[in-house]
Every structure is written in structure tokens, then in C-alpha cells.
Amino acid sequence: MGLVCATPLFAQTGKTVTGTVKDHNHLLSGVVVTEEGTQNSVQTDANGYYSLTLQHDDAKLIFEQLDFPIREEEVLNRSVINVSFTKEDHRIQLKDVVINAGYYAVKDKERTGSIARVTAKEIENQPVDNFLATLQGRMAGVEITQESGGSGGGFQIKIRGQNSLRPDANQPLFIIDGIPYSSDPIGGTSTSGNRPSFTSPLSTINPADIESIEVLKDADATAIYGSRGANGVVLVTTKQGKIGATQVSIRTSMGLGKITRPLKLMNTKQYLDMRRQAYAYDGISTYPTNAYDINGTWDINRSTDWQKELIGGTAEYNTIQTSISGGNTAFNYTVNGTHHEETTVYPGSFKYLKNAVHLVLNYKDKKFNLLFTGNYSNQNNNQPSTDLTTVARELAPNAPALYDENGQLNWANNTWTNPFASLESKFLSKIDNLTANMMLSYTILPELTFKTNLGFTQLHSRELRTFPSTMYNPSSGQGSESSSVESNQTNRSSWIIEPQLSWDKKWNQHRFSFLIGATFQDQTTDRLYLTAADFPSNEMLLSLSTAALQLIGLDEKTNYRYQAFYGRLNYILQDKYILNVTARRDGSSRFSPQNRYSNFGAIGAAWLFTKEDFIKNNRWLSFGKLRGSYGITGSDNIGDYQYLDNYQTTSNPYNGTVGLSPIRLYNPNYHWETNRKLEVALELGFLHDHLNFSMAYYQNRSGNQLVGIALPTTTGFSSFSGNLPATVENKGWEFTLGSKNITTNNWKWTTEVNLSFNRNKLLSYPDLESSAYANTYVIGRSINSIKLYQYTGINPTNNQYEFYDYDGDGKITSLKDRIILTDLNPSYYGGVANQIRYKQLSFDVLFQFVKQERQLYLPTAIAGTMTNQLVDYGIPMQPYSTKNSQIAANYNLMRSSTLSIVDASYIRLKNISITYDIPLKDHFLKPQIFLQGQNLFTITPYKGGDPEFKYNRFLPPLRTIVMGMKLNF
């Protein structure tokens, strides 16, 4: 008994083992060294060195690093153990990289589906505030367009084309740490007046907290998400806890931003010559009293670059990020904090602030695992209520000065509306977002594991658009009683429970993985929109209760419920033949009870043919896989309560009673939109995987289109929700190429190239000619095609535009004359990324390219308005006359003709990142300095501004340059 009491709980030996870990190039930092069977572990430092005091005499050390296979070393009598990973280890491990496929993980070499991936390294190199920006130009089949250069602006994403006839129904499903995250807009039309799109909740996700982003594209990868995977799935995994001693990281940066590609507009002389010529065509020599620019009211010698004055400022960026992480194999943690602020290119003190906190707690023993992930972010956005881009590009260059001699806003004797006055009107937005997920798993048997995900999201958004009386000309005599505010408040909360049972078994040359699970989700959205007016003072505009008039425009609460049961069977024979089958049954509250449930599924297969005896020893082909998949996914993206009769309150009470008016018709018969997906792909590795190539052909056919079906006006309704018997097809090719160009002790250079071709067309639509869409769509052509008049030239006799008269009636007025179809989809797009490292210096560069041969260029002004113009449109211009109505009519016809089709193709230097790791003798500090740039340079024939962002009435994406420092200790 005394002997037992004298025995310590752990047989502490006190023996210390030291050593270094390196690969074939250099020493490795961050390698986890663990004593097997214990929680005793350390990490290698910047020089690859480690020191570990053992707990047992018969210890075995485990060496773990992401890029290499796990290495085990018996200690025996050694006190120094050096580990060296070889090129072969690295090559093997690259194919063993585990990809997040959502409900399960799969080795890259064994996946049967189409999954693209970016990691924290690529994300960290880009000075952006929205994580979707980090995907631009990096993934085949993923087309992302920035919708605004304003702070907190949104992005449009299409995965393998547009599947739905409704442009707003093509968003993929977003999953944040296992939680479905709604990307539905949270803003309102009135309150978001300075943007081309509503506020996106995706802007609340902090890119600095993201570990990886996987995009699931084909049926095999997306079918397990059933009805919500029709347009692809975007999986966002945030950073997890790290094993080892406590590590602290501080990263700070500052930068500047300017608009890209300002328009080349006329100077005062060119502008006035144009104006005088226009009046000369009318035979007018005495200019009208309201032609202030040329009748002498305004100074004809004055010249102002309004783009420089109104949108030519410099935005400033400041960011600080901190991280604390540590722990052992049993418990580890990560806490990240980020503060980001930026100003705008507009005049004034407008600012965008964002704060974020990321917390990860991970506990694990032999059977039980608990992982908690929490993310909280807060945004405060203060912007002008109206985007000044339009007025900056249209205002006459000799317009009056902004301020008078007394420093007050200059109204120039009521001859213009001072653009600075609109800065008094503000767009104020505050968004609080919380996502929390707890994963619990228990290993019942070595092959059998039960897991459940518990998720919760809470989003609160409030938008205000203020219109104070100070924005109006003082001569109007308006006071605070004419001030008004528009408010939009949104609260969205969601919970999800996903129990799951997985079974993995290996018998000789057979490997089975079986997964069954369920999903139960509930989402509630409250939205309140109101207008307030007649305030006692402009200082009270943010206190809506002080307004004498308050009008509720919308007060609604919607509830969305979703449940599903799913299963997956994966079978691998001899490590070279792979079969993957998924099935799912979904139920959605967005359909009537008789159509609420539907079944989806997919089958995928892969053949690793380089494991066959006849080729496995090939000296030049190191890896080869042929894979294919077919399946059905779906969509319930139609909105809530669309199948029910809907009513709204009337705006004008009758005898003091507020009534109800119908706004939507009952239709219980519409059902799920479906997408049938087919893919065949080939993946190859050459020269020990120094050169990797893949190509994929896909065909997606989306039917039972969920749309708003137009109704005759005599019904009192504009449309009702239902299914159209139309089928939209997207098919195309995707190519990726990766190469390790140089791999030596001091040099490393890799290249990644992706190229995508997508062709979209309306495959079928029974009775299209008799439908409301007869003049919108054409069978066999893209749903993004538009009908145009055929421009034939300028008549040399009268200098007017001429168009081809297809119906021969002598007029260009009939829809029969507007028959030329032009596809506005890009012909192809892609990117080229290079990563070069020399010792401690890293250089990363990304080029993005888009072949957009056909883009409709629409001048912002209608015929005859007084605006500045481009020096060179690149298209012929006819003279304008106020007396000849045909000239004005021809100008408007030109805007809808082949003459307005321009080439908006471009090659853009999307991103550059230069990083230098400062070598210090004191290994406690690991300083790093960096310089980054975004949207730096563009080559394009497009003359309408930025070719990516083609809405020239709104602020384009900014060119940004950021520099900073990072300290790890």
C-alpha cells in the first residue's frame, strides 16, 4: 500500500529532449511536438528549435505540421532528436490536404466533387473589408463583381452562371462555421439611396478571422445541402485554437484609397463649344435666360474638375488586429480582436467603423470533443445620403464656386443647386451581428461517432437617412418643420440544430464511410420602416419621437422554418476507386403544405488511375484522377408567405379607421425550383506534382423557375408567385493550372492560373410567344441577352442616326425593329497568381481578367440635358437640336441600339503583397512588415470608367495601398 502511495501520478523523468525540425528547404516554425499519450507539447520557434521535458521514460514524440504527414519518433536513450521532412513527404501531404466539404471532411485526392479553396494566407494578403473580395480572380467558375466603392459596399457572386430568371435569386448558400447564414439584404430602398444595392449582412464577417473558404460547385458537393445548394455553397471556416505555448500577435496597418479610372471629361472650352454648337444647330443666337453656363451668368473662363472636388478625395484606412492563442491537445483557445476605420473620398468627415471579436474554445479527450466558436461584429457607417458621382461627372466645368466670399455655401443667385448641400443629408447605418456555434461529438466506438451542431445567429440593423432643412437653398425659407428622416430597422435571429451520426470502417482493401443526419432551423425577421417629419429642431433628427408626423410604411414579422434529413455513403476500394452517394429530403415553410417536402440527391465517382499497376511507376505522371457526378439540387428562394393571400394597411384611413388592401394572391400550387447538375473532370499531376492541371466540363439545367408571374392590370395585381415551365441551362469548361517553378533553399516560386468559360441559354419555355416574357427572352439564347435596334450609321444629309427598319413600315417605332440579340455575359474570365519567396522576403501578385466584349454603355443623361460629356465616347455622335424632335428620338433609340454596345474587357492588377520577415537574434519577437495594394492598375478599352463596376452613376471600386507591421511573440 505504501508502495502505491509513493508512486507519482505521472512518472516524471525530468529528461529534456531538444532538436530542430526542417524540410528540404529550411527550418520549420510552428511544428507541434507532443509526447504521445499526454498533453505535454511545445511548438518549434522561428529557427525550428524545440525543447520538451518528458513525463515518461518510454516516451514517443509526435511531430505535426500542416504541410507534412505526421512523424513519430521513439526517444529511447536520445536527448537530441532532429527531424527532416523530405520533398517526397511534402508531395504526399499536398494530396492529403483535408478539404472542408460541409457536413464532412475529405482528402483532396479522394474528393469526387468540385470544391475550390482559398486559405488565410491569400485572405491576409488583401486589404479588403468583405471576404468575397478575396475570392475575385482566384477560383474557376466563381464570378464576383464589386457593386460599390463605398464603405461597406456589397458584392455580387455567381457560381457557374445565372440559374434563375430572377436576378436576386442566384445567391449561393453561405455557411459560417457550420451555421447557414442568410445573405438576404437588410437595408431598405429609401434608406440605401447612395448605393446601387441594399446593405449586405456578409459585410459583417471579418476577413481577418477566416482560416479558409471553400466553394462547392457541382451536385456531388452541394446535394447534401439539398434545396439550398442549387446555386452553390460557400463554406467559411474561422480560425481555430492552436496547440502550444501562448502566442500573442499584433498586426497594425494604415493605408490610402482613391477612385480608379476617373472619366476624361471636357474642359470649359470644349464644353462651351459643344453647347454653342447645339444652339447653332437650332439657329439660336440669343441664349435662353436659364442657360446660365453660356449666357454670361456663369464665368465662361472658370474651370473646375468636379470629379476631383466631389469624389477625388483620399480615403484613409487604419486597422489593428490582436490575437492570443495557446493550449495543448486537450484544451486550446484563440481570441482575436479587430478594430477597423476608414474615411471616404467624399468631402467632409464621413467615416466607417468596424469592430470584431472572435473566440474559439476547444476541449478534447479520447472520446469527447467540444468546440465553441463565437463571432461578434459591430459596424457604424456614416456616409452621404446621395452618391456624388453622378453630379461630379455631369456638372458643367464653369459652374459657380462651392463657397461664397463669406465662406458660406454659394447658391449663385439661385442659378444652381450646390452639390455640397447634399452632404447635409446623411446615411447612417449601425449593424450588430453575433454568430455562435457549439459542436459536440462523442466517439461511441472507434468507428462510430455521434456529433451535433448547435448554432445561433442574431443580427440587428438600423439605417437612417436624414434630410435636414439645411440642405435646401436658404431663399426657400424652409425650417426644421420641413426636415424629415427615413428609418429602416431589421432584426433577424436564427437557431439551428443538426444531430449527426457517422460510421467509418476499413476492411482490408475496402473503406466505408456512412453519415446520417438531420437539420432543424428556425429564422425570424422583424422589419420596421417609417418616415418622420416636422421636427422641432435639426438637432433632434436622430430622435424620431420628437417629430410631429410619423408614418409607418412597413411593419412586418416573418418566420422561416426549415428541416431536412440527409445521408451520405462513401466507398473506397483499393485506395483508387471511389463512390460517393448523397440523399436529402427537405421541408420548407415557404411552400404550401401539399408541396412542402421534396427529395434531392447526387452520385459521384472517381478513379485514381495512377495507382493502377500499368501506370503507377510512370516517371512523369505523378497523379491522375478522373471524376464525375450527377445530381439534383433545389431552391426555395422565393421569400416567405408568397403562397398566401397577403394584405397591407391602407395609408389613408376612412372615418378614422385603417383598412386593409390585398397585395398578393393565394397560390398553393407552386413548388420547388430544381437544378440538375452534371460534371466530368480530369485532374493531373506531373513531375512529382510540380505541375498540376485540372479541367472540368459541367452542365446545369434549372427548371420549374420560381418567379413573379405578370398579371393583367385589370386584376388589381401586378404579379403572383408561381412556377414557370422554363429551363435555364449553364454549361462550360473550367481549367486550373498550378506549378512550382523554383524550389530551392532560398527561393520558392509558385504560379496558379484559372480560366472559366460559361454559356448560358434559355433551353425551353413552352408557349413563350403568348407569355408576358415574349419580348424579354428568346429560346436558345442567354437570359442576359437584350434586344437592340440595328445601327446603320449617320445620314450624311442630315447628320442623324439611322437604324435598320426590319418591318419595312418606314418607322423605327415597332418592337419588330428591335430584334438584334446581344449577350451581356462575359465570354471568359479568370486569374493568374504568383507567389515568390526569397529567404525572408515574399512577393505575391494577382492579375484578374475578364473578356466582356459586349457591354451596354448608357450615358447618364437623357437627350438635351445640360451635362458635361466624355471627351471621347468611342462611338459616333450626332448633333442635338431642341427643335427637331426626330433628332431627340434618334438619340434615345441609340441608347437601345447596337451602337451603344462597347467592349468592357479588362486585365487588372488586382492585388500585390510584399512581406518581409525581419530576422532578429532575439527569437522572442518575430516582426514582419508588409505593403499591400488592391485594384492597382487596369488595361481596358472601356471608356465609361471602371470596367468591373459599370454603373457610372455610383462610386467605383477604390485603388488602395496599405502598409503595416505584424509582431508575433
Fold and architecture overview:
It is a multi-pass membrane protein. This protein has 969 residues and is mainly β. It has three domains: 2-85, Immunoglobulin-like (Sandwich), CATH 2.60.40.4130; 115-267 and 303-636 and 672-703 and 727-764 and 824-854 and 903-968, TonB-dependent receptor, beta-barrel domain (Maltoporin, Chain A); 785-823 and 855-900, no CATH class. Helix content is 6%, strand content 48%. The protein has a 22-stranded antiparallel barrel. The chain is globular. Mean pLDDT is 87; it is low at 1-12 and 860-864.
The CATH homologous superfamily of the largest domain corresponds to TonB-dependent receptor, beta-barrel domain
Counting structural domains, the number is: 3
Beta content: over 45%
Query: Main sheet?
Result: 22 strands, antiparallel, barrel
Q: Shape, please?
A: globular
CATH topology of the largest domain: Maltoporin, Chain A
Mind telling me the CATH class of the largest domain? Mainly Beta
What's the end-to-end separation, in Å? Answer: 47 Å
Percent of residues in helices: under 10%
Q: Whole-number average pLDDT?
A: 87
Number of DSSP helices?
8
Per CATH, which architecture of the largest domain?
Answer: Beta Barrel
Structural class: mainly beta
Q: Which stretches of 5+ consecutive residues score pLDDT under 50?
A: 1-12, 860-864
How many beta-strand segments? 48
